[in-house]
Design a protein that fits this description.
Strand content: under 5%
CATH architecture of the largest domain: Up-down Bundle
Helix content: over 70%
CATH class of the largest domain: Mainly Alpha
Structural class: mainly alpha
Order of helices and strands: HHHHHHHHHHHHHHHHHHHHHHH
Low-confidence stretches: 1-7, 484-509
Distance between the termini: 45 Å
Shape: globular
Mean pLDDT: 76
CATH superfamily of the largest domain: MFS general substrate transporter like domains
Number of strands: 0
CATH topology of the largest domain: Growth Hormone, Chain: A
Number of domains: 2
Length: 509
Amino acid sequence: MTAQDGGGLDREILRLGAVVVIGSIMAILDATIVNVAIPTLGRDFHTSISTIQWVMTGYLLAFASVIPLTGWAGERFGAKRVWIASLAVFMAGSALAGSAWSITALIVFRVIQGFGGGLLMPVGQTILARAAGPQRIGRVMSVVGVPMLLGPVFGPVIGGAIVDQISWRWIFFVNLPIGLLAIFLAWRLLPKAAPRFGERLDVRGLALLSPGLAIFVYGMSEAGASGGFGAGRALAGIAIGLALVALFVWHAWLRGRAALIDVSLFARRAFAAAAGTNLLVGIALFGALILLPLYYQLVRGESPLATGLLLMPHGLGAALAMPIAGRMTDEIGARLVIPFGIVLALVGTLAFTQVGANSSYAFLVGSLFVIGLGLGTTIVPSMAVAYQAVPREAVAQATSTINVIQRIAGSVGTALLAVVLQRSIATSLPGHVGGIGALASLSQKGRAQVAPALADAFGTAFWVAFGLVIAALIPALFLPRIRSYGGAPSAPGPEATSLWTVRRRSRAG
């Protein structure tokens, strides 16, 4: 069966998927493993939540800054070469992060990790999307997504065990043997593609977009460090970052398909709705992942290993929902599937807004499982409909764009909820000083005294996440009722003559 058929997934696609998963799962594992080590890092490096969150935010930000290069680099050097080179950079960053001697060094080395990991997922997804064709992209993404979601399932447990029994440094060193295996398999199994020298890199677009993203997230982080969004450096960072991103959008609009990211894709309603859904759900749910480990360790006094076990239902729910949601998206379209997933995420997140110092673990575990179900029913189907909405020749650009949006969502969500949590803690515990390190070092008696007020601070942060999930319903309602691809896999969907095309033609004529 060829990639053009509408049936099941053939052996070649599954083999390519296995190679992509083995390489990409390291990047996912690293994000989830680090989550349970946040209090330990805060204590060892004597730093605050707003600083320690840069261990995650810097990693996600580096992801976002290199993803726009995906389309150009894959065409210029070949997807296989780019993928292997990215793995090598990621492994080098892992070795350096495990050897970090200060919080500043750790953040810098995490950025190096992000530069390598940022290209792994989009390049791998481009290879798979082209091999599968639009009719089967939902199933391909869900089949690949289930093993990749084993990262969120087992990552916190592995990380907790490593932090408890060995050292936090080994949460980075563990990537090295996996990376060597992934490089070997990629060299043997990934298809070769001849480099194409015709397309030039959009240097001006890169100079606008990547710094714009970095400065914006820096401003978000400064808001947390300085106590609010009214601080000068926070406002300046946010404003300058947004201005650079706006200039990039204008530049890309004029440059058209030769831009680093083809913004004309957003003129397709299905693509724009899928991108908006990804952004808002990602900010809410991925950002909330910084709150959960902190709640279990700071409020409930759990160990890193116990915290990892308590976080497992999130990944289990997503892994259970993804293959079902992927097939349903291929069969009945995303308009019915994704809003249902958002409602599930709302129910689970609402439960956490009521969190207290002695909330039932069964209640929390069940709510987290429901959030996972909602995430699995939302993120991958919205990615699938974005790929279905564009012609085959635009798949690489669409992949880059969706991955940039997801990384932005993760970094903004992490920074935003860290800001909200830190301000809520300052309000609930006005006399407290010392940041996360001091909270993590409290005795059992001291923790019991501050736990009710601290739990209220977490509840406030979860209310912000709940509001963002509600907002995701708006773009989800604009998703297509049926599958958005046309009869031929390589043909554009019914929206091929987009608003962008009409405007360009009118200006040219």
